[in-house]
């Protein structure tokens, strides 16, 4: 009888762990993504997008193919040839290029070329899994190459990323060929560390074995190692001028992560802490200050 009880308990534990890992795996790399049109309307209703102005911009639809044969969709906005500068804007997790438009406007109004696009598995792009920048940095490299071909005369190429987009542009620093500067808004420094924080905050306990077991499934299914996603290591020895932006009230990706990356980078760096800003809301809180910080940073290095 005792052996039967033990066997039943073992079976229950195994079933529980299997279901828990399946749930967490789906939440982590197969999470539901938001509708681009709904995001666009939501951003406009908050005054973050000027719809009339955006409609006047001449936009070119672009599709590229990744090394693993996924179709990624983007929009290229041609700027003033006299300005001759380009920014690639990279969105965060579960959203799409629609949330990049609020950043695009501060550049298009100054005559810059702007490229916004949908990550793999987001918006109108293909893909089965999200890898938090592990594969997305190589996708970004293809977009940078596309810009070099589309506007070869561009005198300046920069990257701007929000949240996972920030982590992606920072990881891109390790393979950079053409980019002159990086703006990283509320990026995480270490994915594994962030997952431990989020599990404790979201579920009120820290269950490291669940993260470990899910990591094994992520490696088997999505083909990347969670512990390899460490933007702080990618930028530590990078010479690329980098502006780190983080809201002081960011509870999702803690503010200290942006501060840690700023401290870790050895040179060519600047930090802007947006007072009272929650996650990915620094531009929402004070757009004028945000724009000033961005262009003060760019002017400091490229006047």
From TrEMBL:
Keywords: Membrane, Transmembrane, Transmembrane helix. The chain crosses the membrane at residues 6-25. It comes from the Bacteria. Residues 82-176 form the Serine aminopeptidase S33 domain. InterPro entries: AB_hydrolase_fold, DNA-binding_regulatory, Hydrolase_4. Pfam families: Hydrolase_4 (PF12146). PANTHER family: ALPHA/BETA-HYDROLASE, EXPORTED PROTEIN. This is Serine aminopeptidase S33 domain-containing protein. It comes from Clostridium grantii DSM 8605.
